[in-house]
Amino acid sequence: MHRRSDARVRAACAMFAAALLCAGCQTTVTTSDGTPPAPKPTAGPTTPESARPNAIAVTFGPKPADTDGNLLPDTLQVTAYLFARPHPAPLFAEGSFHFAIYRLGESGTPESPGAAPLRTWVFDADAVRAARSRALVGPCHEFQLSLLASRGTDALPVESVDLVAWFAPDDGGDLVGLRGVRSVQFPRPLR
User: Which of 26, 80, 162, 191 could form a disulfide with 107 if both were Cys (CB 3.0 to 4.6 A apart)?
Assistant: First the structure.
């Protein structure tokens, strides 16, 4: 009888030791600073191929560049995104981009533009395809709006302008206009 109880005690001790050993062997993965690793990246949302653009977003550099060295800013770097709401990801589409700058408060809308733009730019379908790029947000178009293009001048009569933009689809669909205007400064040098 004594042997059976010894065997039971040994078995119980062995099971207890095994349980302690298993509980003590927990594996965790951390980075060198002690934080857990970042989750694995997943693919972002996509827009169906059949979607048509119905919204545009425009961003531009912090300030226009002076490309000819005369201390007057003359070129604005613009990034344009086309969206097919309600889809959150931007898309590429065939068509032309149009940009115009106006005196503050005189721009109108893409459907009814102001009477006298200070400058306009039109990028046809070939130029739009050439301007395709990818940003963190997704597909985009990168444009340089140069006041010097087509023998223009960088001597604007004002220092701040309203920028309007719209996209005209090649298939004759509705214009996709930028909601509102974006004010841009073309400051003159200090004298």
Answer: 162
How buried is residue 123: exposed, middle or buried, by Cβ count under 10 Å (0-12/13-18/19+)?
A: buried
pLDDT digits (tens, 9 = 90+) for 36-83: 888 888 887 888 888 999 999 999 988 898 999 888 899 999 999 999
Q: Which residues contact 84 (CB under 8 A, 6 or more apart)?
A: 47, 48, 51, 52, 53, 54, 55, 91
Given this model, what pLDDT does residue 189 score? 75
Q: Does 149 reside within a domain?
A: yes
> 3-state class of 116 per DSSP?
coil
Q: List pLDDT tens digits, range 80-112.
A: 999 999 999 999 999 999 999 999 988 877 677
**Mean pLDDT for the stretch of residues 101-125:** 87
- Amino acid residing at 56: I
Q: How many domains does the chain have?
A: 1
Model-level pTM?
A: 0.76
Q: Are 167 and 95 in contact (CB under 8 A)?
A: yes
Residue 6 tokens read as: 């010894």
Name the amino acid, one letter, at 130. A
For residues 97 and 110, the answer to whether their CB atoms sit within 8 Å is no
Residue type, 40: K
Residue 154 sits in which domain range?
55-185
> Residues of 44-58 as b/e, b for ≥16 C-beta within 10 angstroms?
eeebeeebebebbeb
